Structure to design on (402 residues):
């Protein structure tokens, strides 16, 4: 009898072990690779990320609590879709499989704004009736390569960018009418021409075929122009949290001169401008500087000056001229800063540095150099800008030691 019970128990365990694992929340999870934590409970994601950041920054400072999102799904307000077709010529749209140029068809995504996904689906459904062919990377035939949607989360404005290999778009007026009938909330439609064999999404030439060719959004009370190529954080809710935290950590008194490096369209510098005496903003990209100057005019900010220059060169020139700043905001690309930039920063010797990073690994590398140059990392606060992925943003306050 005891043996029969034991056999039954073993059989039950075996059956349980053979049961199939529960399906992923995302049907293309294994093919896509973009959302590595899509099936991990959100609180657990935050704990894992915090542990990673804390381990990397352990030699430099304490990492405070992770700032997560109340509603972490559908946060991406910049959505890019690659357009291609199946063997029968039927249009498909989706994203590149991680590390390749193979297109994974996607109808909807838990990370992307639902309205953006709906617009992309409508465009895909309209192509056959307008006899518009999708681009074929192998033979170079076809017209439509990508669709980019940008949404002003706080204004409701929507931009649709049609990336084509030619500026000639058949029946474009009727196409616009049909798309607006489906989605009257669209405020502008732009054709961007990319006729090169390149991994870049956008080309150099573009023309608005409906609306002004750009949208606006609001962050921390400031209004920002967003054009197809503008850098603007993909998660506007957490962007506001991040920038407010950066200003708060700087503990500004109102009489500081602040230098905003890697300034892009001037977002951080403009948001900081009411809290300081003067902002000096430096950015190497000419188009971004033009947008930044316009953003200052829109917001009637008078105490900010924009320079188109390499930040490393600019800081070194300031130091050589004997110029001083009290504070440096730096928000470098994912690869982090450079030893040359950090050398110029140390020479300029501001009292405080607020470092905004989108890569904990490169942040740790840079902190090693900055702290060797006479700075102390006071605290770090991670912000979950990219839920369901490994990515996060971290703000670090550094102060000059005597």
């Amino acid at each position: 009898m005891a043996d029969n019970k034991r056999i039954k128990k073993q059989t039950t365990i075996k059956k349980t072990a053979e049961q199939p694992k529960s399906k992923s929340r995302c049907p293309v999870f294994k093919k896509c690779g973009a959302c590595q934590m899509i099936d991990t409970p959100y609180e657990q994601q935050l704990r894992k990320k915090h542990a990673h950041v804390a381990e990397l920054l352990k030699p430099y400072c304490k990492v405070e609590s992770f700032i997560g999102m109340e509603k972490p799904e559908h946060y991406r307000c910049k959505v890019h879709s690659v357009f291609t077709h199946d063997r029968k010529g039927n249009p498909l749209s989706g994203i590149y499989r991680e590390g390749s140029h193979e297109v994974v068809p996607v109808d909807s995504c838990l990370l992307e704004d639902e309205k953006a996904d709906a617009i992309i689906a409508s465009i895909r459904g309209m192509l056959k009736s307008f006899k518009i062919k999708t681009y074929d990377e192998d033979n170079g035939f076809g017209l439509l390569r990508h669709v980019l949607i940008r949404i002003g989360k706080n204004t409701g404005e929507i931009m649709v960018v049609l990336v084509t290999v030619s500026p000639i778009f058949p029946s474009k007026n009727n196409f616009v009418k049909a798309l607006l009938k489906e989605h009257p909330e669209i405020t502008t439609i732009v054709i961007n021409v990319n006729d090169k064999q390149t991994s870049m999404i956008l080309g150099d030439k573009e023309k608005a075929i409906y609306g002004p060719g750009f949208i606006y959004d609001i962050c921390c009370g400031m209004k920002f122009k967003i054009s197809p190529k503008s850098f603007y954080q993909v998660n506007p809710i957490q962007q506001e949290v991040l920038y407010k935290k950066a200003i708060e950590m700087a503990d500004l008194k109102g009489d500081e001169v602040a230098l905003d490096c890697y300034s892009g369209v001037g977002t951080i510098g403009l948001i900081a401008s009411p809290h300081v005496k003067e902002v000096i903003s430096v950015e190497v990209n000419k188009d971004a500087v033009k947008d930044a100057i316009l953003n200052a005019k829109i917001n009637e900010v008078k105490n900010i000056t924009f320079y188109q220059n390499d930040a490393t060169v600019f800081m070194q020139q300031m130091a050589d001229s004997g110029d001083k700043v009290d504070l440096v905001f730096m928000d470098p690309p994912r690869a982090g800063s450079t030893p040359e930039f950090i050398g110029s920063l140390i020479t300029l010797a501001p009292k405080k540095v607020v470092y905004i990073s989108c890569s904990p690994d490169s942040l740790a590398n840079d902190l090693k150099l900055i702290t060797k140059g006479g700075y102390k990392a006071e605290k770090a606060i991670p912000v979950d800008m990219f839920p369901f992925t490994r990515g996060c943003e971290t703000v670090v306050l550094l102060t000059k030691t005597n």
